[in-house]
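Teaching note: in complex prediction, the entire set of molecules is handled at once rather than each chain in isolation. The prompt given to students was simply: 'Predict the structure of this complex.' The entities are:
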Amino acid sequence: MKKEFFSTQTPLGETLSLYKNFWEGPELSETLAIVSGLHGDRLNGLMAASRLSRFLGDIAQGREPDFKITGNIQIFPVVNLPALSEGNAAWSYDNLDADRAFPGLEEGDLTETLCHAVLQQTAQSDYGIILQTAEPHYTDAPHIKMISANLKSLARNLDLRVTREIAEFPALTLQLIKQWHALGMASFILSAGTPGVVDPSQSDILFESVLNFMLVTGFLSHTHRKGHKRELDFYPAKNECTLLTKHSGMFLPKSKVGNWLNVDQTVGEVVDLYSGEVLETVTAREAGFLVTLRVHPLVHEQEPVAVLLTRKNKRRFWPFS
Amino acid sequence: MKTKTLVLFKSPLGAPVKVIKQIFTAFKGRPVKRVSFVTGLHGDELEGLVLCHRLIQALRQLKQTQPEAFLGDIHIYPAANPSAVNSATRLWPFYSEDMNRTFGQGSGDSVPVQVSRALFEDLKAHSDLAVDIHSSNKHLLELPQIRIIENFAGTLVPLAEQTCADLIWVHPMAGLFESTLGYNLNLAKIPTLVIETGICLRIHPEFGDQLFHGMMHWLNHIGVLAIRNTPAKYIKAPRIIYPNQVALAMARQSGLFVGQARLGSQVKQGDPLGQMLNPMTGEVLEEVVSPGTGLLFTLRQLPLVYAGGLLARVALDREPEP
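The expected output is the structure of the full assembly:
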């Protein structure tokens, strides 16, 4: 169940440990790794991981008699423990973004060794799911992110409609999902909500998504519930439309993530900080699904305030596709 | 000298965020070469700001007294990440973005990435050679050195040999370099030297002197300037080291590292470098000794260390036995 997989001491001699929860299925079962807490402020994932651990613990203890664990499941609720303790995305000691520090180092600075330990613990897994929120200052509609379009069929098991391809960029090499991908693991990021905030409705969505995945992929079985493969809207990276401000000032959103916006529909306004005068109305350049929206009001000129997933070449995947 | 504003964004409160470069053009005709110096990608690395100041000051004076000495163009970008410099932070504040991890295609549209893109395009358009100047993070103090990814060693080592740095460290490629300015410029066929010197948030005038004279010497060597006034005491051939010539001293336990060696000194294997202390119990946890015989070129300055943290690097006089 709960197992320490990394331990060191602080300079003052206190113990600093990382733990995972794990449940074993029958021999030769496949393994699923679930990771949250890469950043100390992405709390919806942490909440969902905690709920999953309690739920799987209940199954293992016989308190959910209709469910059975039929695969190996590992949950790593926290990676960047020092950052979480501080309430920051990264730990102030090294300012290192843990999701830019993979594959890490066996011997090195603490964040690098934490990343190394998590990668080593998960490297033999068949599937990997990272639970996240949007980047700082933004909020995300619940959606799936993945590197390889070949995983579309498997992504349907996650029971979220919107799936977004992760564009290749150089620093991606330093992210956990890319490392998993290079190891041949079927890997996904589930993102929902805003950093620094726990939104129970968003963490419920993450929880239900992973639960459905475990049912359909065979990590859990239930006496009558089978899970389902959902119709999927897959958006290639090239279909993303980022909306930038023209003016600096305060951005006030007038839309909500998760909505479909039509061309010219208002996304928000930029107002002058001193006069309150509306400097600009930001509108949708193209019709699309509003997946990411700015929540922090202060914006520069040319600041990205929204990401739309557009229908250009959009493909819909249904079980028979 | 001409001043050009490269990028100009209005910040939320109206103040401009601008990246400025200073340009010294060839005296006449086409420049033989165009060289760019960049610093301040990390806003807390101040040694580069001093070096750029020294270069701008000297080149301005030279422009007045000996303008014919300029055979090439020199572009100096003294603060590539002005928001971070103003805050003295490594990362671009507000975004917590490491600007030296944003280069290369497809890194997004955030304001830091847009600035990186504009900087990169300007460097590409106006440089035949470049120098990217960094200091270490807050943990380590470094002797002035040129770091070269081994893929580019054939081109870069001969250039670096004329910089009067203490060391040229040729190291293997790693994933983290893929998004850096130096790697991407080298990939774009603009040979770029990456300098690492000193420590963040501090200035070491002796390192600044050494690198200033080194850079002037280098500009002469590559034919961009035609002057011969490098003081003899600064002219030296850097030691070239390869990965198997770097020995590391790592912390075996967490604690408080109190160094007792001097950076730049010649050390023998087993020489004391410092002690690792337990500040709560008064115990000496570990006598830290040199992992080899050679030049001590990196030394820990931030005393609080976690097990596995780097304490020192030694450039070995001899390659270890296989």
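Point out the following to students. The domain at 245-316 of chain B is CATH 2.40.50.100 (OB fold (Dihydrolipoamide Acetyltransferase, E2P)). DSSP finds six helices and 17 strands in chain B.
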